[in-house]
Amino acid sequence: LFRDGIYNWGRIVTLFFFTYKLIIKSLRDQPASILQVLVDWTVRFVKELVAPWIVGKGGW
């Protein structure tokens, strides 16, 4: 989704939606441990890569 280094609002929304869908699926089909992995990865990714882009654009 971000491999090319291009960030935009559509991709950020897609990231959150995709993560949401994975979490819902994991709640139905997977052990609870995968849920924490998904949340931790998403939070770290947003904090390290997406948040600086958002700040650079003047915020939400």
TrEMBL record:
GO MF: BH domain binding
Keyword match Cell division: no
BP term (GO), one: release of cytochrome c from mitochondria
Bcl-2 Bcl-2 homology region 1-3 domain: residues covered: 1-60
InterPro entries in alphabetical order: Bcl-2-like_sf, Bcl-2_BH1-3, Bcl-2_fam, Bcl2-like
Keywords: Apoptosis
PROSITE patterns given in the database record: BCL2_FAMILY
Protein origin, superkingdom: Eukaryota
GO cellular component, one term: mitochondrial outer membrane
Entries under PANTHER family matching the protein: BCL-2 BCL-2 HOMOLOGY REGION 1-3 DOMAIN-CONTAINING PROTEIN (PTHR11256:SF56), BCL-2 RELATED (PTHR11256)
Family to which this protein belongs: Belongs to the Bcl-2 family.
Name by which UniProt lists this protein: Bcl-2 Bcl-2 homology region 1-3 domain-containing protein
Lineage: Eukaryota, Metazoa, Spiralia, Gnathifera, Rotifera
